Amino acid sequence: MSNAAKLPRRQSRENAFLAAFSLTFQPEASAEALENLTESGDVALDDYAQRLLRDVAAHRPELDALIESHLKGWTLGRIPRASMTAMRIALAEMLYADEDMTAIAINEAVELVKKYGADGDHQFVNGLLGTVARERAGEVSC
Q: Which tens digits make up the pLDDT trace of 56-79?
């Protein structure tokens, strides 16, 4: 059940990011942890934000495998939490949303990492997500 009125998509993404980021500190993060976060009202999660979080939770192994397949000389464990969280949300939106929001999802992820991540991390996020988007566009046009 949504505890927030419909928010602008940018705010929904940011709130989903904040919620998902906070869950990275709970190794047992589960649907129950998400439900508790939603009910606490700490972050306003409208239906869109909740859907993004559900998609990330449901497809996390697949999302992480996709990220890992594009790493060169890195491991998932070396990626900063803010960058990892932003990429998971962007990929979930790119892969599972009803509408094609690829460019917007990438831009929003980059902006979130600029705001919450370390200097320069946004370039890594932009590069990885851009590569995935180009690969997906190539699959669609074939």
A: 999 999 999 999 999 988 899 999
Task: Give the residue among 44, 41, 35 at the shortest CA–CA distance from 13.
Answer: 44
What SS3 state is found at 57? helix
Distance CA 68, CA 131 (A): 13
Give a yes or no: residue 111 inside a domain: yes
CA 95 from chain centre, in angstroms, equals 11
Q: Which two tokens stand for residue 105?
A: 């999802």
Whether residue 3 lies inside any domain: the answer is no
Alpha helices in 7-120 (DSSP H): 9-23, 31-40, 47-69, 81-96, 102-116
**Is 33 part of any domain?**
yes
- Could you identify the residue written with the tokens 């094609």? 100
